[in-house]
Amino acid sequence: MNSFETYSKAISAHLEAYRWKNEPKNLYEPARYILGLGGKRLRPVLTLLAAESFGIAYSKALDAALAVEFFHNFSLIHDDIMDEAPLRRGAQTVHLKWSRDIAILSGDTLFSLAYNCLESYDEVTMSRLTKIINRTAVEVYEGQQMDMDFETQKNVSIDEYKEMIRRKTAVLMGAALEMGAVVANASETNRKLICDFGIQLGLAFQLQDDYLDAFGNPATFGKQVGGDILENKKTFLYLKAIGSANKEQVKQLEYFFNHKNFENAEKIEAIKNLYLETGATTHILKEIEQHTQTAFEAVDKLNISNDSKQLLKNIGKLLMGRNN
Asked: Closest Cα to residue 177, out of 51, 310, 8?
């Protein structure tokens, strides 16, 4: 089994060797641009890791991994348009660097190219991989719509929120692992188990992101700490706090989330204190631990070597160890 860095470098090299069309320039250049911004390549790494866990050379899963990376970046382009985000991985977003219309077309092209990547596989494998992408795409769209709906929905439950992040974020991590298992011709039981591992890890990962957004170290988090608070997002922390708060605390939470007549630092600090006072922080940390443990339990049931099981768990620990 190889390291995270080995898989990541292999994906970058495979991407570098991908044969792009040159025209229309404004269609393909934005796609190459967002892919060139890098990132950890987490999801395609999981595809290679899963394939090797089931006993085949990771190189045989590179095309499936590239399909995952294309799909992921397609979704990022569209997310940035809907969120009106100015930056992606520290660089200007596609819709601002070019235009909204170009970004839509370029993102759609990446989605289509993801399917093209699968053409190197035999008919049965390609069919299975295509079904996974189709299923995952629909769930990601559903999750995105739920997230948008929550912005105007007065009451959002914890269960609704977790279902939203499962669809919007976690299912792609599960799909990435499942695609690697499919390339390796793993059994249906093993494919489901490794997908469950990814989904549970994805839930823990997103919940931790919610936590770090409020309580992370600004020097290492990679994003603005307190960004969700400033955007009045109904995160797990907010929903748990509002559900556990007394009348006075509810009044304070609603006041800060409904008014803008104070400094950003003041608002962030006030909300963080309310998260602590209501026990929301304690609860989210327990949820993160629970989903991480459930993910590892799925790994234990896999019919693979103990070394492979340990590597999967180590990757999980690596992802969840970003505690600052």
From this structure: 51
